Amino acid sequence: MNLNSRTPLLDVAVIGGGAAGFFAAIHAKNTTNSVTIFEKSAKLLSKVKISGGGRCNVTNACFDNELLSRHYPRGEKQLRRAFYQFNAQSTVDWYESRGVKLKTYPDNCIFPQANDSQVIIDCLLKECYDKGIELQIQHAVKTIKKENDYFVLAINDQLVYAKKVIVTTGGQPKISGLKWLEELGLKIISPVPSLFTFNMPGNPIRELMGNVVEQTTVKIEGTKLTGKGPLLVTHWGMSGPAILQLSAWGARILEEKNYQFSIFVNWLDEQKEEGLRAMVQHQKKEQPDKMLSNANPFSITNKIWQFLLQKYELPAQIRWKELEGKSLNKLVTALLFDKYDVSGKTTFKEEFVTAGGVHLSEIDFNTMESKKIKGLYFAGEVVDIDGITGGFNFQAAWTTGYIAGKNAGSN
Ligand SMILES: Cc1cc2nc3c(=O)[nH]c(=O)nc-3n(C[C@H](O)[C@H](O)[C@H](O)COP(=O)(O)OP(=O)(O)OC[C@H]3O[C@@H](n4cnc5c(N)ncnc54)[C@H](O)[C@@H]3O)c2cc1C
Questions:
Q1: CA-352 nearest atom, ligand 1
Q2: Count of domains in the chain?
Q3: Has this prediction a pTM greater than 0.90?
Q4: Which residues contact ligand 1 via a Cβ below 6 A?
Q5: Rounded to 5°, angle at Cα 52 from 343 and 23
């Protein structure tokens, strides 16, 4: 293909009109002339719209780059460096300086004060409009080819030429969605779901749906995987931050196990056996004649307490002063090593993220440029990066989008 002087040549073509694509385009346009976003669907920023239950958990109030990076099961090391260019504080400053008021909740999640994801969309659209970025919807990029020092993109039935290309096509549920990138000679990690809840078909714990225990530690049998935090019992099994953390950190291992595995719940956070036995001694002194079923001294709901007494066959009539030997051992197991079999998974509130995508080793994280193909950049979930819930996935999109855009636009 030979370009003549009348062939339009874009400075930067951005493929994908999601969070990462918009951020990349906006930052590319700061230092270059023509930037176009090509979006295959009829809607721009559709995931931003539905994110966080329509409220958009835009980032997390974790302002230490080292700590922030620890929320990414994949991409931790690479993001730690990238956050020195654009981190959670940068996100807050960027939106607030454009008039989007943000609010931090007790769990550190940051949402727009308006509690509406549309304010984020409006801000990004206005920024594109003000900067003169072209938006093309229903433009699906089928292939990219590098010819000499420019790229040829096959979009619908036409060819588009660009000096630089930023790929921000998001997570793909199937490897087939990444074939076109594989054909460029890039190493691709096959996608698996992350962020899901655990199914426990037939388990009576499900009758306690809605019960939450605020501080738990959950371990997956036969692995080192540990989740910490609130645990929610649901009508299909278990959910809540402790479970979602395990689903993210264990995304690949659990897929290999075909989502058939067992977990151990410590209902008392990180309490050890010795500490629990001391608590029991204290309780024996405080309420010796009270029946176990009438006196629950632990930070678990009464319903869960009754359930555990029944599950471990601790007689309802037994009094605290009578708790010795085998019964005491049973109580220790019930509270610290409570076992459940998991069979299958359920998507968390339709919020899903994929582990997998363009291999981290393919990308120079100082610039987000491909190491093999100069002028080709990546940002967002198309890269093998994913975070746990709490605004971390958008933060990765803002950070990598910023870096890719800045560098694609600058030379
Ligand atoms: C229901 C839900 C709720 C969520 N809530 C939150 C939250 O509150 N906080 C948080 O941090 N994370 C949340 N996430 C995760 C977050 O939405 C994603 O991590 C983030 O959107 C990734 O941004 P992205 O730009 O990389 O990809 P996407 O947002 O997926 O955008 C990629 C875009 O590329 C387009 N595209 C794909 N292929 C092509 C092609 N060949 N040509 C042209 N266009 C193409 C797609 O149509 C899409 O519009 C949520 C996810 C879901 C599903």
A1: 53
A2: 2
A3: yes
A4: 15-21, 38-41, 46-47, 50-52, 56-57, 140-141, 168-170, 350-353, 380-381, 391-394, 397
A5: 115
Tokens representing 315? 């007689």
pLDDT of 323-349, one tens digit each? 999 999 999 999 999 999 999 999 876
- Count the Cβ atoms, other than its own, within 10 Å of residue 203: 17
210 lies in which domain range? Answer: 196-347
pLDDT tens digits, 43-53:
999 999 999 98
> What digits encode the pLDDT tens for the residues 289-309?
999 999 999 999 999 999 999
Residues 332 and 373 in one domain: no
d(CA 333, CA 351): 34
Output the CA–CA distances (angstroms, integers) from residue 143 to 78, 155, 252, in the order listed: 27, 8, 29
Where b means 16+ CB within 10 Å and e means fewer, 351-369 reads: bebbbbbbebebbebebbb
For 317, other C-beta atoms within 10 Å of its C-beta total 9
Do 17 and 56 have their domain in common?
A: yes
Q: Are residues 36 and 100 in the same domain?
A: yes
Q: For the chain, how long is the longest CA-to-CA vector?
A: 94
Same domain for 224 and 147, yes or no, is no
